[in-house]
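Re: [help] complex structure
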Amino acid sequence: DVKVTQSSRYLVKRTGEKVFLECVQDMDHENMFWYRQDPGLGLRLIYFSYDVKMKEKGDIPEGYSVSREKKERFSLILESASTNQTSMYLCASSPLRTGAGYTFGSGTRLTVV
Amino acid sequence: RKEVEQDPGPFNVPEGATVAFNCTYSNSASQSFFWYRQDCRKEPKLLMSVYSSGNEDGRFTAQLNRASQYISLLIRDSKLSDSATYLCVVNGGSGGYNKLIFGAGTRLAVHP
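Output below.
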């Protein structure tokens, strides 16, 4: 089974803190993605990566950055956490080929106070 | 206009009912289509891919209408365990990346 593992299930951080969310996949997938999910808004793509050290902005990249130093690991960084970044964060991975489905991690529920 | 649109529901149905969800997409170049299921406070999981000729997996049937750009999911003989949010998913259709676009989901509640 493909596994996508997110390091934390729940996180509480203070406004202004730098926050790291980690994601690791074990199926040698080229693509990795970070989404946030909010009620009524569905899944919104923050950033994605199709190769080591490569990254592309998604629909809502402001206030976030990413790092992909190894193929299996994709990190999401909140440079200075704000309360409007309170959300469920979901990591996903997929093979490079167009048309492949995504496998998601179990999510990190982040609360910024 | 959203790239993928779904009726948010909720659809409240009794056990044993047949229920259908529709979804429309805006990018005529899209080539890959899926239905995902998401349980409350859990991650989305792939339910089934949707093929041009239509496909069935047990009680679930998916249909694609390219001309009208809509996708449907039919669930027969609903079970309590089918209660979840169903996400319609379409690939981005360009750029060469495997970029999927997710609908906001349709919530299904099956009651005894």
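Residues 30 and 50 of chain A are 5 Å apart (CA to CA).
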